[in-house]
DNA sequence: CTCCTAAATGTAATCGATTACATTTATTAT
DNA sequence: ATAATAAATGTAATCGATTACATTTAGGAG
């Protein structure tokens, strides 16, 4: 790979002039410019990002942290981020932390070291203290999961309200024994969705029973299956379930299919509206988050921060998508 | 962020000594070493990857190209790659090309520019000519999709054989009218799976009818639904379907559920054994690829190439997982 | 105490770009 | 034709590390 010196030599000019051509400065004569461009073409030259970044302390790379790419929830968000970033000549790097702090560290270092210009974190398991430290010196945006009262700007939805509405929907259908399949409450979204669930129950004077609240260790299908199976073994079984994620809800549907008596109709509501949720049988009622927009806005916020602008937190609208799993 | 000069000054030594401490060279006296280490701790210093990479032309970063993260097929492969890479002190960057050549270019440039040390490509839409050019100067491994007779090392499964076995399974169940839902035949895996499909049919003297071969434009659920819907509108409907990907197969199951008469039992076989495939109703019979191992081996091959070693192509074993969708 | 050798440390070039400032060349006005 | 100005180009420092080579220091032998 040729470097700028070789181009300069070949074109018979100085490296400064080559650099000017590269960055379309105006003070290059057309003649010189074309000489340089020819040399670039001939030697098949592409400027080194390393040299450039080192000098400019800018990489035009954005890190996107997520716990795991296996949850389809992130897919559309990433599309939103990516399209927006690319339109502004930035690229994104997907960083799967697998909820492991060591990996997180490596990615944080990339930012500190100017290998990346900023971070969008969607990882609920992120070390908030470290992220806050990073955010003091570098642009950071939280997407979906956020820190209440924290200083890092975020874009999210109102999880409490969405959960409240989802559970109210179940109540209106006549359900009085409504279970919650949630994840670890160290995550804000899990706490908020439980609060919404409880608010709806309280409003209708329905009991909040802790044996109907099941906490899973992870969000994949299998954990949903297992949670539902546990709920089905209770002497007083719930007639409806609200799960904090579609993956759990789909697992619950599966468990109902496999283990429940066919005459028991158990209604299920999920959260996220992942693409698979309309492929299940029955199709899944769920809370739709504007995932693409969330990603887009997160990217826009980060781009603003990169320009040194202040940004406001944003809470986007959600929507309850009613499908077969609550109709029967 | 402090730099090496500041550490040197603080510790009262030269930058060379600091660098030696950083890279645990042996020729540093214990006294000096601890002075330097203290300065590093005090100033909270972390060496700049940019400076280091520029000098060493090494980044210890591996690029993983994939067309889209929305296909769960890639999830486990990525885990395999990532765990292997991290064990050797490499990190991976996930690059979603969205099948767009511009994006591909950016990522190729990262490699040319030493921002990344090598590439594992899982993208069937990759520009093979450009990838081959890149592979002349940089380590590149193909994972899953590969180039027959090409010079880039690959790890994959025997798609033709797997498809042949899958279709034979359908034939043994008594199906004589077997459809194929495939994707664009510009992809090698699609061609190979069609060949396997045809070989099985020929072997049992069953007709190969082109109205039973449907090519989709993409691999998502919706395209599977649409394909199956088209097949159900034929006057002579197939009694079984082999789809080249689980996502398509799951869409097909959905379409059968929605549009087929309940008395028609249409058997379905997919390919990949994604985690969803055991959540559907009926559960999906499918070809299981050793995805984690494939990723692991791809990473190991790349690490070997990075050390300058030669590597051999590897074809891994697959397995037909029989579930409800071919039992009824 | 001196000399020699080995160990420890320092100096300065290097990687590949950008850019402030200096210098040369071209253009315009008088 | 000459001075003044504008445009084009060049020179060299810089970003933050590594490392060959040079130099200093320490330790041991005589």
Automatic annotation (TrEMBL), chains A, B:
Keyword hit for Iron: no
Protein name: DNA-binding transcriptional regulator CytR
Sample GO molecular function, one term: transcription cis-regulatory region binding
Cross-referenced Pfam families: LacI, Peripla_BP_1
Record-annotated HTH lacI-type domain positions: 2-56
Recorded superkingdom: Bacteria
Signal sequence annotation: none
Keywords from the UniProt entry: DNA-binding, Transcription, Transcription regulation
Gene that specifies this protein: cytR
Matches recorded under PANTHER family: HTH-TYPE TRANSCRIPTIONAL REGULATOR GALS, LACI-RELATED TRANSCRIPTIONAL REPRESSOR
Keyword DNA-binding: yes
């Amino acid at each position: 790979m040729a470097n700028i010196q070789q181009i300069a030599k070949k074109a018979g000019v100085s490296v400064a002039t080559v650099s000017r051509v590269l960055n379309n400065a105006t003070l290059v004569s057309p003649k010189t410019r074309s000489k340089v461009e020819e040399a670039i073409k001939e030697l098949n030259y592409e400027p080194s990002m390393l040299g450039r970044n080192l000098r400019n302390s800018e990489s035009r790379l954005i890190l996107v942290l997520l716990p795991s790419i296996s949850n389809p929830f992130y897919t559309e968000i990433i599309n939103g981020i990516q399209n927006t970033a690319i339109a502004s000549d930035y690229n994104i790097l997907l960083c799967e932390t697998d909820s492991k702090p060591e990996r997180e560290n490596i990615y944080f270092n990339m930012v500190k070291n100017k290998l990346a210009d900023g971070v969008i974190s969607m990882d609920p398991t992120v070390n908030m203290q470290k992220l806050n430290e990073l955010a003091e010196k570098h642009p950071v945006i939280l997407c979906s999961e956020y820190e209440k009262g924290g200083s890092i700007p975020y874009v999210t939805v109102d999880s409490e309200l969405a959960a409240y509405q989802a559970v109210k929907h179940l109540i209106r259908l006549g359900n009085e024994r409504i279970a919650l399949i949630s994840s670890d409450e160290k995550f804000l979204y899990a706490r908020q969705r439980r609060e919404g669930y409880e608010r709806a129950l309280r409003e209708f004077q329905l009991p909040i029973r802790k044996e109907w609240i099941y906490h899973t260790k992870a969000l994949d299908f299998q954990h949903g299956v297992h949670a539902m199976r546990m709920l089905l073994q209770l002497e007083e079984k719930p007639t409806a379930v609200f799960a904090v994620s579609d993956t759990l809800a789909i697992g619950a549907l599966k468990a109902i299919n496999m283990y429940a008596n066919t005459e028991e109709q158990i209604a299920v509501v999920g959260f996220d509206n992942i693409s698979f949720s309309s492929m299940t049988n029955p199709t899944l009622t769920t809370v739709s988050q504007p995932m693409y927009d969330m990603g887009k806005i997160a990217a826009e916020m980060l781009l603003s921060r990169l320009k040194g602008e202040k940004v406001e937190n944003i809470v986007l609208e959600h929507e309850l998508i009613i499908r077969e799993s609550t109709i029967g």
